[in-house]
Sequence to fold (393 residues):
Amino acid sequence: METPPDVDELAPPNRTLMGPGPSPVHPRVLRAMSTPLVGHLDPSFLDIMDETQELLRYAFRTENQWTIPVSGTGSASMEAAIGNLVEPGDTMLVPTNGYFGGRMASMAERAGGDVVEVDAPWGEPLDPVDVQDAFDEHQPDVFGFVHAETSTGAKQTNVPELTDVAHSHDALVVADTVTSLGGVELKVDEWGIDVAYSGPQKCLSCPPGASPLTLNDDAMDKVLSREEPARSWYLDLSLLEGYWGEERAYHHTAPITNVYALREALRLVAEEGIEERWARHERVAGALKAGVEAMGLDLNPEDDYWLPSLNAVRVPDGVTDSDVIDFLLDEYDLEIAGGLGDLSGEIFRIGCMGHGAREKNVTFLVSALADALDEQGADVDVNAGPAAVRDAF
Fold:
């Protein structure tokens, strides 16, 4: 290319993000990202690393020493967890009740593990009896489950029962908490979770780039006693231990600005209080749920395992999901998403996460959704939804 391209100044649209992620970023987090850059081994940054780790322990409700932000998106923390814990010859038990159980399986296979499955319909949690039967049959070394399934809007209930089954068979438990950390009740230590990974762009309302991960001593012992190295050098936790542990030895250049952002997002969690934050998400999402149900729409999961942070709303008859999604984007600068996998075309996925879990956002969303559905000729009560939201608040 002989001449430089003529590119305009960056000016993305100002969307209201109410899809499955990313969620709206708090202004304080954006300001933190604009602060001066320092080196990834600068003494001041080492202090920031310590503070970020301590704040992550608070959000995860854990005392795990090995609690870090992985350099990368939530999929990086997921692959760090599975790729380090599963080694050739291991068997991993994974769920079939959502899209991200399938991703667990793919990562375990790439790590050299054998994958077996425990079944449940999409949109329902795993049954501890089925998990027990799968353990009795397959004797897996690692068991993974999705605490908050972003593809179905279902929350895994009875987590301590699942971890008890796994531990009675000397297996380690990996939990996907990408859509629950900081928004839905999660108690890593109390519930017996050995490894949990997450993403910053959901209930923490932080741009993607530094993703939470926590491992207890049993899990780290397995990682450090592997017979052969993890297949990913970049995500090898035995090497990352040198940087995030006491040595603070160089491994790779950390995404410094993303760590700034995560630290500030976690400060907001601590200031609000984790239990108060869980309650806010349930209250605000409860108003969203009341609004869509008042219009005559159904949610995909049953109430017992409804996921406040991700509301899976059934697409009504005679409506195409993409038409509604496009209308909201074009007319309201409002983002929601459609379904994945088995639920593609069947549901709208509406996030109520972090800085997006506010009365203003939900009131706006339900009114806009009512307009979009009415425009598409759906048989809905366009006035009942906004009225139900007002009543709920």
